[in-house]
Protein 1
Amino acid sequence: MVGENGFDIRFIRRFYRIQKIIFPRLLSPTVALFSTLLFLNLLEQVVIYFVGLVPSRFYKVLGDKDLEAFQVQTAISLGIILSISFVKSTKSFVKDILALSWRRLLTQQIHAKYFLDIQYYKLNVLNKELDNP
């Protein structure tokens, strides 16, 4: 079935080849960035859980009319809000760095194959079907 896209053995082979390019070895920068991103996602979920507890804690403090506990709860809530903003911005930064790293690795691999032997000559000069490889 030519021209059909799907989840078949060809897809799995290609996906595996790409994984070998973007994760070249176990101790590589991309593996470290990916692990950091996984950790930040987990940390974000933990902090979001604590953000969800903030309103109920305020209801308790306000119901008790305890000024000192209110001030403590406000400080704790401020810390939680600052931590979620830090985690989300750090996660976004790591995600962008990882995307750039993957793009660089894939582009270098494509260029290495393109300029291997005289492939670029075969594509540009001998093959008239491709307009701008």
Protein 2
Amino acid sequence: MLTFSVTLVRHGETQYNRDKLLQGQGVDTLLSPTGVDQCEAVGRRLSDVPFSHVFVSNLQRAVQTAEIILRNNAHCSHMDMALEPLLRERGFGVAEGRPKEDLKNMANAAGQACRDYTPPGGETLDQVRLRFKQFLRVLFQQMLDSHDASKLDDSSSATGSPDDGLHGASIHVLVVSHGAYIRVAVRHLVEDLKCTLPAGLKPSQLFSPCPNTGISRFVLTVSRSGPESRATLTAARCVFTNRKEHLEELAEKEV
């Protein structure tokens, strides 16, 4: 068995985020100046985490975010990242590039909740969930193929405090993606894969929208099973979701 932490980070702010416009997959923009500052802040927050693998959506805003995080990291500043199309934002079809209010109006006209509505040419939530499940299969297999679990000593690389999800895990994975995608990913981990939750965590906190550079962390255990020795999840724990304390220093500067 192999136990590792997964740190999910949403990309920093873009001008489209600031203007409340949908980006999806078809609008591929860079970070705004505020977004760069947010990424520097989250990079400092994660600077002591010895990431051994970095998976990033291949959209520019996610790649730029990951580059800034790695540049601030004390252990892996020169690490190569794996650009992964499976981590791209949910596709919003004809609504991309348009105000979010337009999506709400489309959903209302169709008699559906905005979160559940799929605009023409867009991805359904089930399609996004399938992409995340495919990514997990890639991740699990790579973890087991890259590391000999029998030779790992969990205590040797334990870092941080017991409540941050790093203590006791030998491997740490950084995943940089997008808001709508991360929301689907968290739901899949919690509702479908039945990961354990921290005491006192409210559902409103768990499934709330992820802010720009918000951090979520899970600890996963995988093993090989079946005649083909396929990678299988055997345990999952949610440590926290949507943390944004690192952004407080930016808010103080703006005051």
Protein 3
Amino acid sequence: MKPAENKQQGNETLITEFILLEFGAFMQLQVFLFLLFLVVYIVTVVGNVLIVALVVANRHLHTPMYFFLGNLSCLETCYSSTILPRLLAGFLTGDRTISIGGCLTQFYFFGSLATSECSLLSMMSYDRYLAICKPLHYAALMNSKFCITLVAASWLGGFLSIAILIFLMSQFTFCGPAEIDHFFCDLTPIIKQSCSDTHVLEVTAFIHSSVFTLPPFLLTLASYVCIISTILKIPSSTGRQKAFSTCSSHLIVVTIFYGTLVLVYVVSGSDALRDLNKVFSVFYGVLTPLVNPLIYSLRNKEVKKAVRKAALRFLGFDKNTAISR
């Protein structure tokens, strides 16, 4: 670090770098943690990229539901790539320093993608609501133009909204302590490093959460209340099972996402559970992008069928040769 005297803060010094403590308390497990997170990152990227490739290549998956799924997988790939490569580099080199600009950049992409995911998941739930509760109007309402508009709004909304927070944070002076007890740059740890007045930023962050997190969650909740109510009214058990199977994967993903979100930003905020924040954050920022493609590939018949078809093509088999044999 290169401290500089802060004339406005008396004896305090300005800092130009942060030190991410990461998992320094487990020094004896550094090699194990490096290999673990490396495997998680590889599986996450391969799994999500595979889903994107399947959605693009397979014409049977050119539907609104899989269009949203492809965007979710693309988002998850970018999401994990904002955290894990920097973490892996820290394990490998032992250098845990990160510049203030680098820290704000990491938080910008992390926050933008998390915000976009909230919107995208709510759109996926609305898609399932229309498919199950309004089947006769589904094709007319969920057309290609409308789907593209929804997805573009989720991506742009996430990146533009977080830019406001980054602008406010860029005006801060940071006087330490320079150590961030986390494995990536999140909002609260950065605020703790500031010696400026953070009231405006905290109010803005609260408004941001109220606008870009709460409404998507409420829309998702309302959609599934209607979906479950409609499914329960289906007379046959086979019909209920078939209807629920079309949204069960997304429901699991939504539960994991918002469940870990609450653990990180609500429950772990208490003094008793503050030390578990890193553990909760691993579930939220690392494991969630990993399990999403696994859930969709293991529970979705169309995706499993597309995977088998792609595997046969890769091995040199096609439908005709399979039949002839």
Protein 4
Amino acid sequence: MEPGNGTQISEFLLLGFSEEPELQSLIFGLFLPMYLVTVFGNLLIILAVSSDSHLHTPMYFFLSNLSLVDICFTSTTVPKMLWNIQTQNKVITYECCITQLYFYTIFAVLDNFILTVMAYDRFVAICHPLHYMVIMNPRLCGLLVLLSWIMSAMVSLLHSLMVLRLSFCSDLEIPHFFCELNQVLLLACSDTFLNNIMIYFLTGLLGGGPLAGILYSYSKIVSCICGIPSAQGKYKAFSTCASHLSVVSLFYGTILGVYLSSAATQNAHSSTTASVMYTVVTPMLNPFIYSLRNNDIKRALERLFGK
């Protein structure tokens, strides 16, 4: 295939994890249950929050949004991977690849924003408890989530449009199980300097900025908790944000830790492993973290199932 613009490209080949049929069957048997647990676990969180009036608070409003985003995030990549393994057909059309890239980017950025908003919510709840319901009113909560969606959609649209302007070489094999932006850019024959600059700039702005906000919020939270005189008061204050802190640590820890190691080795397999960690493992563990560490969620689930 001669290099050309994006509209002339017919398909990409997703190489996935392995060419061996036995290993692919093992991967299918592992990822299908993980995907189902992710979907049903996060759906339970959404149902518990929506069905229990005691959970109609800003904290659980953001949690239900996080669960929705996690379902969508995982669903942009895993079903296609499972389908490719089952049918032994690793082809994805150019249009589907760009579509997958667009929605994957939306939910990856949105996950980042929602976690940041949740950190701000915990900061207000612990550091300004008397003004919490005034500050975190329904209008502000809805506005924060809406702005997160709009900004994520704009960032994703920008990346997708910049990929559409590229022309591609004849060897369109992606050493991954989905169309990741960096891997797609490596196949381009045209200059990707502007694309790479935009990736670094937006990653620093939309990744480093929210992370700095989360760290600042928790530095203030820790300071406020240390000022509480009683040990019981400190434990109660910390328990309200322990689940969120665990999820934040898991999300950023897997991205930073695994991707830094894969960048050092420049290994495609390491990059795939990194993607699995935060596209599959983290969304799957989030419902367990919130249900096991949160008595309100436990009671809501018990009432939901009539126990």
